[in-house]
Amino acid sequence: LKPEQYRPVSLTSHVMKIFERVVKINIMKHLIEQNLLNPGQHGFVPGRSTKTQLLQHYCDIFETLSEGTRIDTIFLDFAKAFDKVDHDILLQKVAKHKIKGKIGLWLQEFLNNRKYRVVANGEMSDVQDVLSGVPQGTVLAAVLFIIMISDVDENIKSSIVRLFADDTRISRKITSEEDKVLLQKDLNVIYDWANKNLMKFNENKFEQMSHGEAKNIKIE
């Protein structure tokens, strides 16, 4: 068995799922009405999907190509993103998104004091505390995660960041050597965000792609 290839799943009752759905609907309504969603996030957001994310990315590429220049894109992926969410940091961001009062307290109880067991080859482990992560398999897991990652591009000054849940792409038009340096600086900002938020990238899934040709600069 390779434990890293498995994901924990939270089993909840039908009544709990119905209640979660009611909470989720109200949270999403609040986030949309208050314009609190990251505009670059296309995962688990009403009216957005992988198609809308790709369409925006294609528009970025075509706009750059029409200008006769080049755009560089770096594709990033968080390692075990949903499992690594720190509860205290998430709850701080929940409050920052103006989700307080009874709902805020209920979300705190929803995340904390969870237990788990592992069954392998017919053997069951002792009960362990769940110390991090949004409960995968629950209705609220996705919306809690997009709240967690909502400020990933908060300090990005010049590059474009597109998201689908934890799948992240950062792009920039390359018209000079300075643009390459600025793209690297913005990439460093995202790395700093990950470290600050106790999350890690899966460097085995990093990809870099260029479209077009930058004039008068050295292409490495």
List keywords for this structure.
220 residues; DNA/RNA_pol_sf; two-stranded antiparallel sheet; RT_dom; single chain; Alpha-Beta Plaits; alpha+beta; Reverse transcriptase domain-containing protein
Order of helices and strands: HHEHHHEEEEHEEHE
**Total number of helices:** 7
Number of domains: 1
Give the % helix: 40-55%
Task: Note the topology.
Elements: H1 14-33, H2 50-66, E1 70-76, H3 81-84, H4 87-96, H5 101-111, E2 115-116, E3 119-120, E4 123-124, E5 128-129, H6 141-148, E6 160-164, E7 167-174, H7 177-196, E8 207-212
Antiparallel strand pairs: 1-7, 1-8, 2-5, 3-4, 6-7
Helix pairs in contact: 4-5, 4-6
Describe this structure in words.
There is one protein chain. The chain contains seven helices and eight strands; from the N terminus they run ααβαααββββαββαβ. The chain has one domain: Alpha-Beta Plaits (2-Layer Sandwich). The mean pLDDT is 93. It has 220 residues and is an alpha+beta fold. A hairpin with a 2-residue loop joins β3 (119-120) and β4 (123-124). α4 crosses α6. 41% of the residues lie in helices and 15% in strands. The strands form three sheets. A four-stranded antiparallel beta sheet has the order 6-7-1-8, with helices on both faces.
